[in-house]
Amino acid sequence: MGLVSNVVLVVGFAWVVRSLLGAREVTWPRLLLAAIAGIVIGATVAGLLLIDVGAPIEQQLTAFEERRDEFYAVALPFQVLTTMLAVVVLELLFTRPPRPRGFRLVRPVRSVRRRLGIIGRGLQVVRIVARHGLAPALGLRRGQLTARSPEELARRARTALEDAGGMFVKLGQLLASRPDLMPPEALAELGRLHASARPLDRAEVEQAIRAEIGRPLEEVFVDIDWHPLGSASIAQVHTARDHAGREVVIKIRRPGLLEAVERDLAIAVGLARIAERRTAWGRSYEVGAIAEDFARALRTELDLQVEGHHAVEMAQAAERRPEVRVPGIVEELTTERLLVMDQLVGRPLSRIDADRPDAIEARRLADALCASQVEAMLRGERFHGDPHPGNVLLLDDGTLGLIDFGVTGRLDAYERSSVMQMLAAIRLGEPSLLYESLVAVGAIPPTREPDRIERRLSRFMTVHLGPGLPPAEALTELLRLTAELGFRLPPQTSTMFRALATLAGTLEQLSPDYPLIDQVAMIGGGEFRAKAAPGSVTEMIQSEWAQLGPLVRRAPRHLDRIATLAEHGELGARVRLFTEPDDVAVIERLLNRIVLTVLALGVSLVAVLMLATETGPVMAGTQIRLLEVLGWGGLFAGSVLLLRVLLEVLRHPHRR
């Protein structure tokens, strides 16, 4: 009972302190630790004030028994103050910016096991990096790289990723789809990455599918080919047929994958942050942010229900082009771990060198594929974010099929307008217009060295652009230039440019010398030609004058009226301050702190003056002066107010 009462006392004491400080966001473990420390320290201070610590222990115990009530009365305010001070100190030492996350139960054993797993796996990855001589590149060791050529460095990176295995192979494959970040040598090497994932046996696959469907497989499928059509690091694919005779593909995510993915992603992001802090290239490319983007993309790819939803949207966008097919999704069977879709029978474009269609047919299919994707981009519909030759099938019926919708994109109206302006700037060879379009899309802060940036853009256009429409490679070079300058396009805009660059290679595989930019200009229609064609300058001036003309005609009357008011001394101005709620909130918070600080200092000063006064009424039945009681109470109240202000100042903005 004594232990229970002590626990209740500590918890109640912590709750009181939490209420006095207004610290509702302080965690309970930290609060209880502060309460225990405050109770011990407060009792120690009271003992030093009331008991002669130099006397024998028997006399100290006797004095404590005689002055027990006085001891508790003196100890209580010190305990409250020291507890509050301990809360502030703990917040100062251990508070970190919060990370967005959902509700989860506290599981200490699982958390410790997860951290130990990350540490063990991280040490393994670091040893692999060091063994391949890449430690200096990541800032893990001082010195220079010993690679003799970019090809050798790319080969080392590929073999290191393969040795690391797991999600590092997938991250390498994602990097292989980023020509804006990787040089051609690295793209060629990373494109050879292959995952050595162990195929799941039938029992594992059957159990995983049954768990997602929630009923016996025989009720849904007539036949399932248990020999996998494909087995990758994330999911395994099987073919099947349902009771209606529909040939489908079953994509099932590997069991227990999330924990391994989060472990590898935590290590990859950590290594990227180290490289960003310790290396010049890491700071230039902001590899920490890039790693975070890759992690988000990979987490999205793990959700097969999202992939299915994207496939449905892409099918709706491709309805206008019968030559391009997107597999239908069996939505009632699709979950986060299971994706069921129609089976497309054909071969990837990467494997049709020997059976390529004739030139006329190949050009017709290439036009349809290009139109389906570019129209979706310009109309704000869902487009394929990684249309490389392996994700485009030449079907047995002579049409094309799109698969693998883990990476897709969709532009909003503002992004589409900015993209059209960027394409027009590239077409006209105008670095100033290209700079303005990058500012408009949010890639460049408008105050960041515009002259230097325009000179770099001008050199880019001089090197890569010439008479006529620009080559498709210019899009990749533009993305690479923005990365070198430390700019970051919005995710969807960047996905669109990467998709166009990848689509250029796929179209080249299907129909050599395919003019992608010509097709983009043609598909873009009047809006693109109006911005790209030099002959439209007159139309542009007429359009602008239609909007500005009435304002210009009214300008003299407005100027005359302003001059008349100024002449008679009647000209005035009205300024409305603090119209934005955020500005009002900042000012209110600042004024609240100032008022609380002044009030705390004032109350404390008056309290000190009361304590210094040796006269005044005495409380009935005691020798305690009333001013002394009021002084100690005021000093306590002033301390509480000061600590509240201090905690508010130390608190992270996202926790307020």
Q: Summary?
A:
With 656 residues, this protein is an alpha+beta fold.
Helices and strands in order:
Elements: H1 2-21, H2 28-50, H3 57-66, H4 68-94, H5 108-131, H6 150-164, H7 167-176, H8 184-190, H9 202-213, E1 221-224, E2 230-231, E3 235-242, E4 247-253, H10 257-278, H11 280-285, H12 287-302, H13 304-317, E5 324-325, E6 338-342, E7 346-348, H14 359-378, E8 383-384, E9 392-395, E10 400-402, E11 408-409, H15 413-428, H16 431-441, H17 450-464, H18 473-484, H19 491-510, H20 516-532, H21 537-567, H22 581-612, H23 626-650
Parallel strand pairs: 5-10
Antiparallel strand pairs: 1-3, 2-3, 3-4, 4-6, 7-9, 8-11, 9-10
Describe what this molecule looks like in 3D:
The protein is an alpha+beta fold and 656 residues long. The radius of gyration is 35 Å and the shape is extended. The longest helix is centred in the last third of the chain and has 32 residues, at 581-612. Strands 1, 2, 3, 4 and 6 form a 5-stranded antiparallel β-sheet that branches. The protein has a 4-stranded mixed β-sheet with strand order 5-10-9-7. Strands 8-11 form a two-stranded antiparallel sheet. It has helices spanning 2-21, 28-50, 57-66, 68-94, 108-131, 150-164, 167-176, 184-190, 202-213, 257-278, 280-285, 287-302, 304-317, 359-378, 413-428, 431-441, 450-464, 473-484, 491-510, 516-532, 537-567, 581-612, 626-650, and strands at residues 221-224, 230-231, 235-242, 247-253, 324-325, 338-342, 346-348, 383-384, 392-395, 400-402, 408-409.
